[in-house]
Amino acid sequence: MGQEISCIRQGAREHALFRGVQNGELEIVQAMVDHDPSVLSRTTVHGNLFALHVAAVHDQIEILSMLLERSVNPDILNRHKQTPLMLAAMSGNISCVERLIQAGANILKFDSLHGRTCLHYAAYYGHLDCLQAILSAAHSSHIAISWGFARFVNIRDGSGATPLHLASRQGSADCIHFLLVNGALVSASTCGYGYPGSTPLHLAAREGSLDCVRELLAWGGDRLQTDSSGKIPYTVALKHKHAACAALLNPSSPEPLVWPAPLKFISDLNPEARTLLEKALIAANKDRERVILRDTMNSFSSSPVHSDSGLAEDISEASDVDLCSICFEKICTIAVKDCGHQMCAQCMLILCCHNKPNAASSCSKSPLCPFCRSNISELVVANVMANTSTDEELSPSKPRRSSRRSFNSEGSSSSFKSLSALSSFGRTGGRNSGRVVAECSEDLDKF
Ligand SMILES: [Zn+2]
Ligand SMILES: [Zn+2]
C-alpha cells in the first residue's frame, strides 16, 4: 500500500493530500479539503484508494473521523471493491474499525478479489480485536435479523471458506476460539454442505499449528472427515511433516475432551466461569497430549515439536487452603450457584464431560453437583481466591496423578465412582470444600 501511494503521479495536489493522510497531518488535510472538497473524489493511481482507505490502512483515526464527519461515504470502494473497513480489519487498526462501524459502514460487503467480507479479513490476518468488533456489530445490526447471526459468522468467500477456515489456515488460535464460541461450524467444508472439501482441521493440519489443532479438536472437529482428495487431517499433517499435529490427529490416538454438550443446558453460564472451564479443557487436553507426544517424539525424534510451550512443567504447589476436594491438586475456582459447593474447573469439566457429546440420550440432563446431588443450573466463579487461582488455571498443568484416573474412566458410573473414591479420602484441609466432603460423603457413596 505504501508504494502505491508513493507512485502517485497525478499531480502535486493529490500527492500532497495522500501523503498528508498517510502521515496524519490533520490540519494540512483539513485545509486542503476545505479549500477544494473535490479532492475527496480523487484516488491513488495504484489500487484506486480514496483518502478514507488510506487513513484506514495507516491507522490515522483523526483524519478518518474528520473525513466521515464531512459525509464521506464509509463504504466507498477501491478498484477491488474493498471498503475502508476491510482494509482497517486487514491492518488490525481497531480504532478505525470501530469508528467506521459507528459511522454505519456495511459489514456485509464482498470484495471482488476473493469475495471476502471484513470478517474474513479480520480472521485471515488474525486480528482478534477487529473480529470481536465486527461480530458485536453484527449482533446489534439489522444483519442479525435479516441474515441471522449464525449465518454471518459462517459466511463464505468466493472459494467457500468461512472466517474459521481462514483463521485455521493462518494459525490464529485465539480467533478460532472466538469464532467457535460465537457459533462457527467446526467441521464446515469449503465445498458446502454434503460435498467433500477442506475442513478447518485440514487447514490447521497443513499449517502445523498445534494450538489451532487443539482448539478445533476441543470443539468437536472431526478427525475422520475427508477432503476433496480423500485425505483426513492426519494425512495432511503427515504430508507437511507436522509430527506433533499428526499425533493428535491420528484417529487411533485417544480422543480429546470435547467442550461438553451438557453445559449447553446450564442456563446463564457466567462468562468468567465459562472462561475458566474453557481453560481447564485445554489444560486437560494438554495433559493427555503429553503422553501422545512423548510417543511421537520417540518415533519422530528428528522433527521438532512446534508451539509446545504449554507443555512445560509447572511445579508450583497450590496452597492447601482452597484445594479442590475432588482432585486435591487444583484450587477451587468454580462454584455451583445455588448450593455453593466448590471445585476446580477441571473437575467440573470432567463432571460435565463424562458423557460423550454424541451420546444424545445422556446429554439431555444437566449434571448434578457431586456433593449434594442438586441440579447444576448455574456456575459461577468461586469467590475465594478467584483472582490468584485464574493464574493457576492459566499456567500449564503440572503432572497429575489422581486426576488422570478420572480422565480415563469411562461411562458415567465409573466417573462418579472415581470422583467419590477421591473425595472419600476425606482430607479436611479445605476450608469450604473439605467440610462439604465430610458432610456429603454418604451421598457420594450411593453413586
Ligand atoms: Zn479438582
Ligand atoms: Zn452442591
From TrEMBL:
Q: Tell whether Mitochondrion is among the UniProt keywords.
A: no
GO terms assigned for molecular function: ubiquitin protein ligase activity; zinc ion binding
**Domain RING-type, which positions?**
324-373
Q: Which InterPro entries match?
A: Ankyrin_rpt, Ankyrin_rpt-contain_sf, RING_XB3-like, Znf_RING, Znf_RING/FYVE/PHD, Znf_RING_CS
Q: What is this protein called?
A: RING-type E3 ubiquitin transferase
Q: In which pathway does it act?
A: Protein modification; protein ubiquitination
Report which superkingdom the organism of origin falls in: Eukaryota
EC number(s) of the enzyme?
A: 2.3.2.27
